[in-house]
Amino acid sequence: MRGGNHLNEWGKLPTDEVGTNEQLGHVTAVFQKQYRVMTADGETLSELSGKMRFEALTKAELPAVGDWVIQSEREVGKGRIERILPRTSQFSRKAAGTEIEEQIICANVDVALLVMAFGHDFNVRRLERYLTVAWEAGVKPLIVLTKKSLIDNVDDLLSEIDEIVFGTPYFAVDSLTGEGLDALKDVLQPRETIVLVGSSGVGKSTLVNALAGEQLMETGGVREDDERGRHTTTHRELKRLTNGLLLVDTPGMRELGLWDGSEGLASTFSDIEMLAKSCRFRDCQHGGEPGCAVQAALANESLSHERWESFLKLKREMAYAERKQNVALQAAEKEKWKKIHKQAQARTKLKYQKR
């Protein structure tokens, strides 16, 4: 494939066939109506083909950062995206606001860095949410705890992390001093695509600069009253670092809504899943049934009430999203056929006008 060696720097190349007048490309940034795409011939600013715009029922069917796409060339430096190649993974969430629709944060991701700062941002319940979404996406999670030098009780907070991660690696770092960064760098491999997920002000941009070894991204100030920062990233973007690492930076997300996290929930709350298998009845609802291992664990405090409530909250959220998804997909399908019918009527009218 022409220029394949250059594209190979942007991750493992897909094996799909590429036509004579087609280009293989990797989406490196998503803007409102355009996409920055890296191809064998260099970078293009691309838009969707009319066919793709028409056939996409949901936002999840549109290109995302990290997607491999097939495009045609409109002119030098400009492309038209014809189709998206199958994704190996996708990191998604419920779209912000009241609309129940899947939003793809990025695709073909290998590792998710779940970034949380020591201080006011430290929240193990939010971390459980992040873990659930990462596992469901088929993405390996790594927990990165930043701003280590700002607090004295690091060990106490790490013990809280130990209670919920069950083997997921975590790293306590200080991006400014470099403390703890070498251990993190050792587990990140060139050509792996990494996504950073975390609230504003947790030090994601500072962490990126530390991993890159250069001032790659602007860092934002942090308000002293609550230690939250302003957004320094306004769109999702894939960057290739000098060490060969591919990194997606995302706008800060405080509430990461679940989309479809049934498998992720089982991985994040594996302790509760194991307890449930010990219940006397297979269909135990973990309420007032006799022989309930979950209720027994809550009673003897081997399972905390906070963790159990977190599990129930995420489970309810998934059930609600699933119900709404079915309604949204039906509405999208109905709208699609209305458009098709309207176009067919217009063509028929034009046909008779020409007679």
Number of strands: 13
CATH topology of the domain at 90-249: Rossmann fold
Please give the radius of gyration in angstroms. 23 Å
H/E series? HEEEHEEEEEHEHEHEHEEHHHH
Fold topology:
Layout lengths: L3 H4 L15 E8 L4 E5 L2 E7 L1 H6 L12 E8 L2 E7 L5 E5 L7 E6 L3 E7 L6 H14 L2 E7 L7 H12 L4 E3 L8 H7 L5 E5 L6 H9 L24 E4 L5 E4 L12 H7 L1 H8 L15 H7 L5 H49 L2
Parallel strand pairs: 3-5, 8-9, 8-11, 9-10, 11-13
Antiparallel strand pairs: 1-2, 1-4, 2-3, 4-5, 6-7, 12-13
Tell me what you see in this structure.
The structure is a single chain. This protein has 355 residues and is an alpha/beta fold. Among the domains are: 4-84, OB fold (Dihydrolipoamide Acetyltransferase, E2P); 90-249, 3-Layer(aba) Sandwich (Rossmann fold). It is built from 10 helices and 13 strands. It has helices at residues 4-7, 50-55, 124-137, 154-165, 181-187, 204-212, 262-268, 270-277, 293-299, 305-353, and strands at residues 23-30, 35-39, 42-48, 68-75, 78-84, 90-94, 102-107, 111-117, 140-146, 170-172, 193-197, 237-240, 246-249. Strands 10-9-8-11-13-12 form a 6-stranded mixed beta sheet, with helices on both faces. A 5-stranded mixed barrel has the order 1-2-3-5-4.
